[in-house]
């Protein structure tokens, strides 16, 4: 769904903030598992799902429509044909050429995936027939599930811990797998080995949305009614009781309320109405209902956030965490949040509900298939970086060691106190610079555009001199950091001399300590032999005081 430019108004009626939230590209790097991927690999990701009992498995698609998997591979859930874990991304060749429309996972874990053409593939844990292929053997590679679905186009999938649900384009629901509490909706408690249409009250209804809790199932129909079945020990069916329900039953307490979406946590349920209101019921030991207490609720209870309309709800059958997003772009979370029980919706700084699950859910899994839109929009900072040393847009040239460096007067004046005064009435478009070398002066000007430096430690000494001269204290710290990272026995004395010369006391202490720790080698270098007399005297005196010459 495309997001429009949203303008939110404060109490006074004046505009507070205008944000184009679609420009905020989802950062998959917030999920710990993605730290195994390089920055280049992360840039190519277009869809992703993090799953598994510890958030240790991931499936993702790239800009080239290739599917990759990574992680511990419990029960062969990566679909690679083996049960070997992989710390490097491996391509899932068996689904080559398929485009993913939606995906869900169970606790085993097992995977249920629907393609953009409406086909269903399953693999992974299968002890309870949750793959729907008629067996109880774990599926090590994706298996096309066509029994009773051959002429159907699947548009949505949902998994409980060990059962599976799919929704077709004509509004029918099919279920299979573990059925100890009636979660398959067949009227019995026998496990269901192949897809079976969920009938009963749903027989003549058009379903528009499905969801699964750990051992329960939900369906929203096009009239806004909600039908539920399966386990109800915590009141998660919202029927006012705690008895299991082997066939679909309408939630009577929502009479007159039109529900658009349903989301299930481990044992709690959230719904979103057409008026942007949220209701919750079920287990509440972590405050996951968001109603201000930790008491279970067997009837729908309203969840109050700001006056702004809610446009998205989020929950996941493997977690006790809830989240919601408002029309103005605010994201709230409640329930189990990194070990804390948050009993009322808490306003976060996130821009999407996915971030709540990446940073606060236990385990850190995705509540849906993540979609990463390519974003070629440049920020102000990125635009400025591109303009450094660009002769096409520059209005000022620095001539250093016979070479030009191109810059922009207005930016230099904004970024540097020295240029603010020196360029104030300066009409020249060329400034000659003889006090500093070309690499040093170029690094300085580039720093004003990028906030970073990239220099070898010996050159950073010259930049430290410049930073001291121009009173650029942050640049001074960056130079000291670069020098520290590049110190070695051969250059230690030269760097110590520079630190003393430019009154960089922290750096001086660091270089001195390095010299003491490597004293035997350092005293044999040419730098030590050519050391300034006063500096040598001070060095020996200080070294004596710290016991460097004791046997």
Automatic annotation (TrEMBL):
Give the originating organism. Zalophus californianus
Name the InterPro entries on file: BTB/POZ_dom (IPR000210), RCC1-like_dom (IPR058923), RCC1/BLIP-II (IPR009091), Reg_chr_condens (IPR000408), Signaling_Regulatory_Domain (IPR051625), SKP1/BTB/POZ_sf (IPR011333)
Q: Where are the RCC repeats?
A: 118-170, 171-223, 224-275, 276-327
Q: Which UniProt keywords apply?
A: Cytoplasmic vesicle, Repeat
Task: Name one matching Pfam family.
Answer: WD40_RLD
**What GO CC annotations are associated with the protein?**
acrosomal vesicle
Q: What is this protein called?
A: RCC1 and BTB domain-containing protein 2
Q: Which gene encodes it?
A: RCBTB2
- Keyword Repeat set for record: yes
Question: Sorted alphabetically, which CDD domains does this protein's record hold?
Answer: BACK_RCBTB2, BTB_POZ_RCBTB2_CHC1L
Q: Which domain of life is it from?
A: Eukaryota
Q: Does the keyword Repeat apply?
A: yes
Q: Domain BTB, which positions?
A: 394-457
Compartments where found: Cytoplasmic vesicle, Secretory vesicle, Acrosome
């Amino acid at each position: 769904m495309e997001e429009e430019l949203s303008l939110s108004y404060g109490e006074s009626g004046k505009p507070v903030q205008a944000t184009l939230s679609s420009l905020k590209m989802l950062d998959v790097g917030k999920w710990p598992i993605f730290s195994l991927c390089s920055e280049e690999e992360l840039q190519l990701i277009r869809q992703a799902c993090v799953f598994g009992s510890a958030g240790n498995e991931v499936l993702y698609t790239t800009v080239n429509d290739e599917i990759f998997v990574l992680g511990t591979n419990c029960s062969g859930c990566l679909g690679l044909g083996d049960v070997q874990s992989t710390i490097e991304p491996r391509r899932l060749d068996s689904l080559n050429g398929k485009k993913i429309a939606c995906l869900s996972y169970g606790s085993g874990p097992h995977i249920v995936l629907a393609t953009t053409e409406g086909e269903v593939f399953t693999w992974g844990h299968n002890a309870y027939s949750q793959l729907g292929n008629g067996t109880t053997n774990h599926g090590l590679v994706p298996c096309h599930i066509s029994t009773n679905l051959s002429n159907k186009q699947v548009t949505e999938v949902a998994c409980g811990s060990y059962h599976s649900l799919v929704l077709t384009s004509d509004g029918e629901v099919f279920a299979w797998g573990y059925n100890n509490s009636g979660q398959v909706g067949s009227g019995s408690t026998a496990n269901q080995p192949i897809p079976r249409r969920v009938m009963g009250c749903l027989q003549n209804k058009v379903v528009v949305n499905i969801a699964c809790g750990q051992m329960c199932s939900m369906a929203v129909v096009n009239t806004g009614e909600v039908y539920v079945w399966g386990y109800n020990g915590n009141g998660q069916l919202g029927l006012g009781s705690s008895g299991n329900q082997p066939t679909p039953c309408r939630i009577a307490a929502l009479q007159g309320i039109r529900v658009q979406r349903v989301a299930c946590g481990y044992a709690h349920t959230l719904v979103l109405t057409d008026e942007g209101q949220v209701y919750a019921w079920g287990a509440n030991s972590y405050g996951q209902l968001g109603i201000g207490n930790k008491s279970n609720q067997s009837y729908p209870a309203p969840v109050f956030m700001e006056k702004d309309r809610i446009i998205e709800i989020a929950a996941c059958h493997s977690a006790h965490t809830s989240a919601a997003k408002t029309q103005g772009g605010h994201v709230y979370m409640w329930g189990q949040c990194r070990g804390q029980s948050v009993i009322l919706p808490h306003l976060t700084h996130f821009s999407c509900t996915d971030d709540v699950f990446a940073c606060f859910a236990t385990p850190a899994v995705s509540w849906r298939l993540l979609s990463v839109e390519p974003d070629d929009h440049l920020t102000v900072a990125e635009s400025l970086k591109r303009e450094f040393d660009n002769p096409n847009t520059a209005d000022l040239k620095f001539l250093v060691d016979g070479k030009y460096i191109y810059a922009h007067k207005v930016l230099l004046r904004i970024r540097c106190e020295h240029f603010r005064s020196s360029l104030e009435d300066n009409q020249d478009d060329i400034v000659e610079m003889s006090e500093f070398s070309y690499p040093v002066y170029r690094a300085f000007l580039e720093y004003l555009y990028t906030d970073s430096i990239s220099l070898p430690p010996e050159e950073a000494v010259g930049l430290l001199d410049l930073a001291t001269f121009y009173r650029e204290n942050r640049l001074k710290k960056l130079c000291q950091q670069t020098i520290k990272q590049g110190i070695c026995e051969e250059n230690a004395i030269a760097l110590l001399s520079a630190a003393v010369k430019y009154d960089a006391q922290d750096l001086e202490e660091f270089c001195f300590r390095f010299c003491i720790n490597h004293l035997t080698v350092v005293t044999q270098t040419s730098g030590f032999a050519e050391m300034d007399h006063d500096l040598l005297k001070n060095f020996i005196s200080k070294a004596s005081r710290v016991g460097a010459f004791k046997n």
